[in-house]
Design a protein that fits this description.
The protein is of the alpha/beta class and 358 residues long. It contains 11 helices and 17 strands. Helix 1 links the parallel strand 1 and strand 2. The protein is globular. The termini are far apart.
Length: 358
């Protein structure tokens, strides 16, 4: 069997999410990963750029919605990146089926580094160091998840409790915990043996397929049939749609990671955020002297602690504090900071009205 010294990792970038929690900037036609939210590059481009060390990584495999294929290709091409494969999902079926498609098109012994396309990692060196630490145990058949070192009690993320150490920097995952209430999150933070579940994984393709066979055979069966009936257009892989639409929709955590006995966690402090809300975006951005984060055509007078963005008309604020103001030209969102989770209510209301701004 190959060792970590003589083969490279295959990055698998999951780019199928809709990102509605960042409406009105993120839309079905242009979801969060296609936007430049934190730098001049988009979230997808930053993710792809993170795995460009040719000594460690191969060309990436991208799993995305069929409707987004051209946009993904254009964004990668602008960076000089040509994907090894672009797997086009006929419909969204969550992360376990998406990763199953990638694993079934890989060589069995390939090490797959599975990454969401819309997360922020500010310390790329820490990320790559953690990947190198994880490689040996992944080659031995363990399914590795990367635990984000928490910097505060947080109720918006799931947690992983570390168990026995398997090797330097690698621990058996003792327990997965759903998003906890604040008191429990504070307890986890104080105990120091819990990490946030960041949704980034490393494993051999055949190890993941074996785990699917054991714990989610219906997902594996549907994905196999979809790949067997697929057609190729250059590096594009188009799975058979009729079969894939019948595939159960389930996350990789629920389908496999919370059930298998071969789960390990590598803790890493890499300044990570899933940018899952406008509040999360405010938290990671550089503030001005009034603790505002502004972008676009914005004038903020006597304004403190606000996140303000405009894609079109000038936005002028006077005497405001602790607000989120997002203007895209055809839609405007205004809400107090701390209420970001209610954006889904707005999206639901717009969907019920069949509003064109979704």
């Amino acid at each position: 069997m190959s060792t970590s010294n003589d083969r490279r990792i295959v990055p698998v970038i999951l780019s199928g999410g809709s990102g509605t929690r960042l409406w009105p900037m993120s839309r079905a036609a242009k979801p969060k990963q296609m936007l430049a939210l934190t730098q001049s590059s988009t979230m997808l481009q930053l993710t792809a750029g993170r795995v460009q060390d040719e000594d460690l990584y191969t060309s990436p495999v991208v799993v995305t919605a069929a409707d987004h294929a051209t946009a993904v290709e254009a964004q990668l091409s602008a960076m000089g990146i040509s994907p090894a494969r672009l797997i086009l999902e006929p419909c969204a079926r969550n992360t376990a089926p998406a990763v199953a498609l990638a694993a079934l098109t890989a060589d069995p012994e390939d090490l797959l580094l599975v990454m969401p396309s819309d997360h922020v990692v500010l310390d790329d060196k820490a990320f790559s160091a953690a990947v190198r630490i994880a490689m040996l145990q992944a080659e031995r058949g363990w399914l590795i998840t990367f635990g984000i070192s928490p910097h505060k009690p947080e109720t918006g993320y799931g947690y992983i409790r570390r168990g026995n150490e398997l090797g330097p920097g690698v621990f058996k995952a003792a327990r997965f915990i759903e998003k906890p209430p604040l008191a429990l999150a504070a307890q986890y933070f104080a105990e120091g043996c819990y990490d946030w579940n960041g949704g980034i994984f490393l494993f051999r393709a055949d190890a993941f397929i074996s785990a699917l066979q054991a714990y989610a055979p219906n997902i594996l069966a549907s994905a196999k049939l979809a790949i067997e009936g697929s057609r190729n257009e250059g590096y594009r892989v188009l799975p058979e749609g009729g079969v894939f639409r019948k595939c159960p929709s389930e996350s990789i955590d629920n389908a496999v990671m919370e059930k298998s006995d071969l789960i390990a966690v590598v803790p890493v402090d890499m300044s990570w955020s899933d940018v899952g809300s406008w509040d999360a975006l405010y938290d990671i951005q550089r503030k001005d002297s009034s603790q505002n984060v502004t972008s676009g055509d914005v004038i903020a007078l006597d304004t403190e602690g606000c996140l303000i963005h405009s894609d079109g008309p000038v936005v002028v604020t006077i005497g405001l504090s602790e607000l989120v103001v997002i203007s895209t030209g055809d839609a405007t969102l205004i809400m107090p900071r701390g209420h970001s989770q209610r954006v889904k209510e707005a999206v639901s209301a717009l969907a019920a009205a069949a509003h064109p701004t979704l």
